[in-house]
UniProtKB/TrEMBL annotation:
The chain crosses the membrane at residues 110-131, 153-178, 190-223, 243-264, 365-392, 398-418, 430-448, 460-479. Residues 108-222 form the Glycosyltransferase RgtA/B/C/D-like domain. This is Glycosyl transferase family protein. Coiled coil: none annotated.
Amino acid sequence: MRTKYVTFYVVALLLVQTALLGYSARSHSPSWDETGHLAAGISHLKLGKFSLYSVNPPLVRTLAALPVVAIYDPPMDWDYFREDPKLRGELFMGRRMVDLNGEAIFQHIFVARLAVIPICLIGGLVCFFWSRDLFGDLSGCLALTIWTFSPNVLAYGSVISPDMGSTVGLIGASYLFWHWVRDPRIVSSIGLAGAIAFAVLSKSVWVILFPLFLLIWGGLIISSRWGSGDWQDQFKSVAGWRPGLKLAGAFALSLLLVNGFYGFEGSFRRLGDFEFISSAFAKAPSLPSGSGAGIAVDENSVGIISPHATIGNRFSSTLLARVPVPLPANMVLGTDMQVAEFERGRYDEGWQAYLLGEWKQGGWWYYYVVGLFFKVPIATWLLILFGALSAWSWKASASQWAAVLCLWVPAIFFFWMVSGATGMNRHIRYALPVMPVLIIWASAFLRLDGEEGSSQASDRRVWGAVACCAWLVGVTLFYTPHYLSYFNIAAGGPKNGYKILCDSNIDWGQDLIELKAWLSQNQEARENLRLAYFGSFDPVVVGVEYRLPELLYPPVKKEQLESLPEGWYVISTNCLAGHLAPLPDGSGALVFNYYGAPVFEYFEGLEPIDRIGYSMNVYHVE
C-alpha cells in the first residue's frame, strides 16, 4: 500500500514539474544562448558537421533541434557557417536565423524546449532513487519535491542549454557507478557507459569522471583488502581483474558512444597535430594584456579570432605529441576555446566579474558560494541544514559509505575546479551540477526508517519538512514563470538581484514576449520607446520598434539627467549593473554596439514605474 502511495506522489510531482516547465518554456522569449544553440543543432542535423558552437558538446542542442527540423524545417542562411571550430559564429548564425524566421522563432524555440524537458524530469527521478536507496521512501519524496519546485532547476530545465544536461549527466553517472560498485555485472557496466557518454556529450568537463571513478574504485579495493567485516564482504566483488576489465570496457564503450555521436569526426587525432589558442594548451598567452577582445565582431569575420591571438601547441615538441586523443577533434578544440574564454576574464576589461555590486578583473574564488546562497530559496537551505545535521548521526553501512563517496567526490572536485576558474565568474548555472547532491543530502532530514528515538521526534521532523516544502512551493509559484530572475529574501527578492549578480543570473533576454505584451497595453510607450535590451538578437526583427536611450558616459552630471528626452525607457537590469555586453540598436544589424563603458548605468539613479519580469525596468521621463 505504501509503495502505491509513493508511486502516485512521484507521478503527480513529475506532472506538476512538466506543467511548470512547459509554462515557462511558452512564456519566455529566446534567452541569450538559445538561438545559437538551435542554429548549431540544426547544422548538426542538416549538414552533419559539429564545428558550430564547439565550446559545448552537441547532445542537448541536437535533441532540441530534432522536432524543429522535423516540423518546421526553418530557413537558414548557411553562408554564415564557418568550418573552423575556433570561430564563434553561432551567435551570428542565430541572429540570421531570427532575421529569416521573424516572430515564428518564438514557436520554434518553444518546441525545441519541449524536447529537452524530459532531461529535467529524469534528473528528478535520479534524485528520488538516490535518496530512497540511502534514506528511505519519505526521503526520496522529499528530494523529488525540492527538485520539482527549485527555481534554478525550473529555470534551466526549460531552456536550450547544456547546463541541465550536465547536471543530470553527473548525478546519473554517479548513481549508476554506485550500482556498478555494488554489483559489477555486464548489464551494470553497459548502463554506466551510457550514463558517462550522456554526461560527456552534455558538457566536456565530465571527462574527469574517468579518473575520478578510477580513484573511487581503487579506494574501495583497498578498503576491501585492509578493512574488516562489512567492508570486506561488500567490496570484494569489485576487486580483481574481472571487475577491472568490466570497468575498462564501460569506459571504452562510453568513448565509443561519444565519438560515434560525432560521426568519428577527427577522432584519435594526435595531440601534436592540434592548433590551440588558450595559454594552457598553446604555450603562450592567447591574448596579451590590453589587446582587446579575443573574438572580432564584424560581419566579414563572423566571430573570427583576433589577429592578436597566439596559436600554438605546447605539446608539439614533447613525447605526448604522438599520443592519439580518444575524443572527436571538435570536442578537443571546443574545450581549448572554453579554456581561452575562462582565461580572458583575467585580462580583458570587457569580461570583468560582478558580485555584490562590485566589478573585478579575475573574479573571486567564493563567487559560486555567495551566488548560490542568494539564488537558492531559504526554505531549501533550511532543509539542507537539517539534512546535514540528521546525517551527522547516521550509522551508514559499507554500501552506503560507498554511495557517499560516489555522490560527493565528483561534486566536490567539480566545485573546486569551477571555483578556481575565476576568469569566468559570470554564470551561477555553471555550478548547477552540485544542486542534486545538496538536495539528496537535504532529504536525510526524513531518515526515519530504523532510527532509534521517539515517534514524537519523528513527527516533528515530518512536520518541519512539510512546513519548509510548503514555503518552497509558495515562493516558487509566486514567482512563476520568472525562475531565471529569482533571488531569495536574503537578497531582497528578484527586484534587487542585479545589485548582487548579473548576466544570465537575472537577465538573459528572456522577457521580450512580456515586453511585447506590455507595449500592447501601453500604446504611448510603443510609439516613443527607448530600449536597452540584453539579448542575442535585435528585437526589431520580431516587431519591437525602438531607439537606444541616450549614451551618458560616467560620471553623469545632474543637468544631463534633467535634459533626457521625453519618453518611455525600458532598461535591462544588466545595464543598470554596468554590464558591458554589446547591445542591439534597433537597426536589425547582425553586429551589435560595444561602448566600452557603462553608458546606461545612470538609470540606477532614477525610479522605475514598472518592471518587465524582473529583468527590465521601465522609466517614464516627462
